[in-house]
Design a protein that fits this description.
The chain is α+β, with helices and mostly antiparallel strands and 307 residues long. 39% of the residues lie in helices and 15% in strands. The protein contains 10 helices and 9 strands. It has a 5-stranded antiparallel beta sheet, with helices on one face. A two-stranded antiparallel sheet has the order 6-9. It is globular and about 60 Å long.
Length: 307
């Protein structure tokens, strides 16, 4: 389980009471690399279902959370299915077990285990809508929304593909691509679907301003490489959905393959870093749900495939 701060039912019930809800059951979420998430079945004062999700932030300071609240409000206003934070005793930024937290509605739907073409088209359109949404407020402390700048020194210690990764990083640094608001982590487990209808976009805590092409590349890798192999039909569907809302510029089309390689490298590095960090913190047996080898395989496949 990727839960780093265990909570008792009594602690959770206290939070829910401040939101006018009563706890029925709580389940720690099995996904995630950075934060602790709890899926809460609850009822309101009229005993109607009022399920929600409690996120306890392990490294994000409380001072940053109002920015995320504003972001989610803006995206909801743009028509995207995002979980805007709920107020607890009049406050949206909470303190739970001594750590900052947010309580959000539990949106309907399920994470797609594998994506089909209509789902890829829908997620592409939603991502383009996000990139088109004006949000001038810069993340207070984020210099690089892709996360690559901080991770780049780790390339020298990669067990494999070290030189090719270093060359890729150098090429990426030389590019100047259109920047927008980006999600930064739009994997399948950060979405919800009912059938082929998109019902939720989740986990915006890696969001910021960065190259839109990087964000698109993250999606293409996770959504369109079942079993680690490229699927041309899925890629075409996702790109059709995206281009229907925000057509790629010429330089973006030219560098899409590079961006996909960079996205695979970024998440390989971040998953390796997370594994090392938790081991260093005394959690050698912690099972993280995100396997670094998956992204390593993506990178190897993409490096050896035509652009």
């Amino acid at each position: 389980m990727s839960v780093f701060t265990p909570l008792t039912d009594a602690q959770i019930a206290t939070v829910l009471a401040g939101a006018g809800r009563q706890l029925v059951s709580a389940t720690p979420a099995e996904h995630g690399m950075e934060n602790s998430n709890f899926l809460l079945h609850a009822v309101d004062a009229d005993q109607q279902p009022a399920d929600c999700v409690l996120t306890v932030f392990e490294t994000t300071p409380a001072a940053l959370l109002p920015w995320f609240c504003q972001l989610l409000d803006t995206l909801a206003g743009a028509g995207l299915p995002v979980p805007a934070p709920l107020a607890v005793d009049g406050e949206r930024v909470l303190t739970v077990a001594g750590k900052p937290a947010l309580l959000v509605p539990w949106l309907p739907g399920q994470h797609p285990r594998t994506a089909d073409a209509p789902q890829c088209r829908a997620i592409g359109a939603a991502l383009a809508t996000l990139h088109n949404t004006p949000f001038p407020s810069e993340h207070p402390h984020q210099q690089d929304a892709t996360g690559l700048q901080a991770l780049a020194p780790a390339i020298a210690a990669l067990p494999r593909l070290r030189q090719r990764a270093a060359d890729l990083w150098q090429r990426w640094q030389q590019l100047s691509l259109p920047r927008t608001l980006i999600h930064g982590d739009l994997f399948r487990d950060n979405s919800l679907f009912q059938g082929d209808t998109l019902t939720g976009l989740l986990d915006f805590y890696a969001a910021g301003h960065g190259p839109a092409l990087f964000d698109l590349a993250v999606c293409l890798n996770d959504w369109c490489m079942p079993g680690g192999q490229r699927d041309a039909d899925l890629e075409a569907a996702l790109l059709a959905g995206y281009n229907g809302q925000r057509p790629l510029a010429i330089d973006e089309r030219e560098h899409l393959h590079t961006a996909r390689c960079v996205a695979a490298l970024r998440f390989w590095l971040s998953r390796l870093e997370a594994r090392q960090r938790h081991r260093a913190a005394g959690d050698p047996d912690l099972v993280l749900s995100k396997d670094p080898a998956e992204c390593e395989h993506w990178l190897a496949t993409l490096l050896d495939s035509p652009a």
